[in-house]
Amino acid sequence: MKCICVFAGSNPGAKPEFSQAAEELGKELLARKLDLVYGGSKMGLMGRVANAVLSGGGCAIGVMPTGLFRGEIVHTNLTELHEVTSMHERKAKMNELADGFIALPGGYGTFEEIFEVVSWGQIGIHGKPIGLLNVEGFYDPVMEMVQHATEAGFIPKTATPLLLCESDPAVLLDRLRDYTPPEKVNKWSELSEK
């Protein structure tokens, strides 16, 4: 692994532990000489993880649609900034650059981004590792929902390992490093194996 894509809130959230975790993740990326690719904002958890990487001389690559420059306030000290035309192009570019994905706490955008890369992994578009940094139990309800959907027959049991979840950035990065994608199986229960 050379580059990790981090999805994160463009707000800092209500708990100081969220910002602390973003900074710890940035420092851990730096210590492992891993580049960061992310949404390109200087705001919220996005900005905190980037600042932690940049403060140690690491590489932080931003990808931002032109229309979001005012709202997310583009980070002007990045190693690279890729200006794109849409959110679809943003996600495709981040996927192209990344060897793995981590979601810090965030809102609708973060949820959408992480679930899209999980969906891509499930149907075989990529075999990259995907993790949730479970700060203060933030992602407990998501993991419960995944388990519920598995038990209800909507997520194949073979696909539940696609989403790794840890509360410690170092442990999560170790798991991403050691990740082996699950064997590709038929995800459609009504389709024969032939």
From TrEMBL:
Signal peptide: none
GO cellular component, as recorded: cytosol
A single BP term in Gene Ontology: cytokinin biosynthetic process
Sample GO molecular function, one term: hydrolase activity, hydrolyzing N-glycosyl compounds
EC number: 3.2.2.n1
Pfam families: Lysine_decarbox (PF03641)
Organism: Brevibacillus invocatus
UniProt-listed InterPro entries: LOG, LOG_fam
Domain of life the protein comes from: Bacteria
Protein name from the UniProt record: Cytokinin riboside 5'-monophosphate phosphoribohydrolase
Keywords on record: Cytokinin biosynthesis, Hydrolase
Entries under SUPFAM superfamilies matching the protein: MCP/YpsA-like (SSF102405)
UniProt family annotation: Belongs to the LOG family.
